[in-house]
């Protein structure tokens, strides 16, 4: 019976950590988790357990471990002798938790990494002026019209229309090329 209670407490701790870290539930505090799940455990021991489980969950989530990676990671953790390792029971609880919560944690991490408002759509066209439409206002070339659809989750879209002449299009393309080169440099470093 003690093993079942220990497994339930650890499962509750992992869920509580996930609620706080990945689902932004500010009510799920370390103090609440100790009071509800590990009342008998001294504060220092609980803090060490909490930090170890939080660190392991962050490592697992950051790597978005598949079942094979998770098994290898947890096997390595159970073999560690010094304070950072886990017991077989803790490894089993971590495995059960990750198998049931991987999708939700991943979705939460993706949502936290998005900029808001986000780009929902983009359309563009190039307009050419005919001799009849030029009249007195001769712009002297094609005009690119770009419409951006911007929005925040759960809200209606906003539309922004941009107009570029040939010079502005070339400047925009140059900036995008610079950005691509910067991303490539960073990507090749890691």
Strand line-up across the major sheet: 1-2-3
The helix tally amounts to 7
Q: What are the secondary-structure elements, in order, as H or E?
A: HHHHHEHEEH
Q: Can you summarize the main beta sheet?
A: 3 strands, antiparallel
Shape, per Cα inertia axes? elongated
Outline the low-pLDDT stretches: none
Overall structural domain count: 2
Structural class: alpha+beta
Cα-atom radius of gyration = 27 Å
Fraction in helix:
55-70%
Describe the structure.
- The protein folds into two domains: 2-112, no CATH class; 118-189, no CATH class.
- It has a three-stranded antiparallel sheet with strand order 1-2-3.
- It is elongated.
- The protein is an alpha+beta fold and 190 residues long.
- The protein has helices at residues 2-21, 30-37, 43-63, 67-79, 88-112, 131-134, 166-189; strands at residues 118-127, 143-151, 158-164.
- Strand 2 and strand 3 (158-164) form a beta hairpin.
- It is built from seven helices and three strands; from the N terminus they run H-H-H-H-H-E-H-E-E-H.
Topology, please?
Layout: H1 2-21, H2 30-37, H3 43-63, H4 67-79, H5 88-112, E1 118-127, H6 131-134, E2 143-151, E3 158-164, H7 166-189
Antiparallel strand pairs: 1-2, 2-3
Features:
single chain; 190 residues; alpha+beta; 2 domains; three-stranded antiparallel beta sheet; 3 strands
Tell me briefly what this model is.
This protein has 190 residues and is of the alpha+beta class. The chain has helices at residues 2-21, 30-37, 43-63, 67-79, 88-112, 131-134, 166-189, and strands at 118-127, 143-151, 158-164.
């Amino acid at each position: 019976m003690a093993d079942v209670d220990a497994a339930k407490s650890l499962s509750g701790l992992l869920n509580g950590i996930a609620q706080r870290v990945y689902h932004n539930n500010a009510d799920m505090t370390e103090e609440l988790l100790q009071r509800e799940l590990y009342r008998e455990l001294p504060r220092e021991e609980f803090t060490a357990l909490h930090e170890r489980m939080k660190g392991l969950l962050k490592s697992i989530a950051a790597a978005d471990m598949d079942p094979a990676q998770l098994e290898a990671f947890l096997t390595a953790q159970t073999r560690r002798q010094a304070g950072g390792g886990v017991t077989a029971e803790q490894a089993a609880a971590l495995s059960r938790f990750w198998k049931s919560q991987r999708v939700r944690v991943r979705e939460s991490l993706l949502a936290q990494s998005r900029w808001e408002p986000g780009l929902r759509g983009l359309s563009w066209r190039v307009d050419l002026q005919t001799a009849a439409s030029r009249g007195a206002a001769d712009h002297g070339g094609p005009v690119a019209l770009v419409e951006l659809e911007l929005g925040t989750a759960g809200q209606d879209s906003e539309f922004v229309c941009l107009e570029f002449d040939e010079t502005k299009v070339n400047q925009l393309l140059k900036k995008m090329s610079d950005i691509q080169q910067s991303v490539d440099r960073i990507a090749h470093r890691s």
